[in-house]
Amino acid sequence: RIAVRKDTCSMVSVSLNIQQRVYPVIWSVSNLPFDCIQALPVRKPLGGTLILTNNALIYLNQSIPPYGVSLNSIADASTSF
């Protein structure tokens, strides 16, 4: 099935304004690898989110393009990210 659909996950950052009931999307990224496991917050001053997958680490931040590092040779065959 990987040959048909590799990158099926998405990440969306939403601001929650409970008082005014407004929930704007701050930023979003689609076409992340199918095997995304966990999203970890990155503390200030760097900020952003670290996405853990079985085969890669991906750093997401609204200020810069997404950056990923493969952890093994399987990542090359399992994602186009």
From TrEMBL:
Organism: Diaphorina citri
Organism ancestry: Eukaryota, Metazoa, Ecdysozoa, Arthropoda, Hexapoda
Domain of life of the native organism: Eukaryota
Gene3D superfamilies the record matches: YVTN repeat-like/Quinoprotein amine dehydrogenase (2.130.10.10)
Name of the protein this chain belongs to: Cleavage and polyadenylation specificity factor subunit 1-like
